[in-house]
Structure formats: structure tokens, C-alpha cells
């Protein structure tokens, strides 16, 4: 099963806040950087994490490891109660992820909770 480790983060560089996600693919030992393209209130680590997950599921990765419990909770909530996300600031990303999950007939997409701030190599590389 193809696995991708996702981690959203925020760093300061030259007095600027930079938000993005890392997607680490152990099979190829590659790290992909994802820009969530947010602005103002929508430019946050949660959006970066969702953008990283969207990038992974759109490239047929079926096991997604993330240390973000809140991101997994939002995805679960979007599946069960989509009407509650009508005005969610990340609704478009959530809908993109859910559409891929629902349209994946051959294999189901699974989420794995990676423990944060421990030396899990995949999570550390995505960070």
C-alpha cells in the first residue's frame, strides 16, 4: 500500500510567516512541498495540512499518516455531516479530499495517526 506522511508547518523567514505542508514518500525517499495558497485568516497550518492530504490522495496514496488529530476530525466530520461545513473556511479542500475518498473504488483510503514530536522517520521527514 502506498503511504504518504503529511505535516503542515509554519516558519518565520526574513520576518515573514511561511505556511506550507511537507509530503514525504518513503518509497521514493522524496519530500514534496505544498503551498496551501491561503491568505489572511485562511492561511494557517490546518489549511496546509489539508492541502498536503489533498495532494497525496490526488496522487493515489492510500495510506495517509498525519500527526494532526484536528485535520482527521474535520475530514471525518465532512464525511458524516457535510451540511455542517457549508461555511467552513476550508470547505473546498475538504470537499476535494472527500470526493477522492468516495471515488476510490479499488482501494480504500486510510488515515494513520502519527505521534507528533517523536522520532517517527516519515513524520520527521515531512516536518
Short description:
The protein has 127 residues and is of the alpha/beta class. Helix content is 35%, strand content 27%.
Biggest sheet overview? 5 strands, mixed
CATH architecture: 2-Layer Sandwich
The geometry reads as globular
- Computed over alpha carbons, the radius of gyration is 14 Å
Low-confidence stretches: none
Tell me the structural class: alpha/beta
In spatial order, strands of the major sheet run 3-2-1-4-5
Tell me the number of strands. 5
**How much helix is in the residues?**
25-40%
What is the CATH third-level topology name? Nucleotidyltransferase, domain 5
Q: Please give the alpha-carbon distance between the first and last residues.
A: 22 Å
- Tally of contiguous helical segments: 4
Order of helices and strands: EEEHEHHEH
Strand content: 25-35%
Number of domains: 1
The average pLDDT is 82
CATH class: Alpha Beta
Amino acid at each position: 500500500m502506498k503511504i504518504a506522511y503529511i505535516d503542515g508547518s509554519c516558519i518565520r523567514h526574513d520576518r515573514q510567516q511561511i505556511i506550507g505542508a511537507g509530503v514525504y514518500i518513503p518509497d521514493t525517499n522524496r519530500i514534496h512541498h505544498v503551498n496551501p495558497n491561503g491568505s489572511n485568516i485562511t492561511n494557517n497550518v490546518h489549511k496546509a495540512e489539508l492541502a498536503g492530504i489533498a495532494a497525496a490522495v490526488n496522487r493515489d496514496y492510500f495510506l495517509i499518516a498525519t500527526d494532526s488529530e484536528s485535520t482527521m476530525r474535520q475530514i471525518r466530520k465532512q464525511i458524516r455531516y457535510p451540511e455542517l461545513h457549508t461555511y467552513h473556511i476550508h470547505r473546498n479542500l475538504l470537499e476535494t479530499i472527500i470526493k477522492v475518498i468516495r471515488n476510490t473504488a479499488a482501494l480504500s483510503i486510510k488515515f494513520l495517526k502519527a505521534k507528533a514530536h517523536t522520532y517517527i522517520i516519515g513524520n520527521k521527514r515531512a516536518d
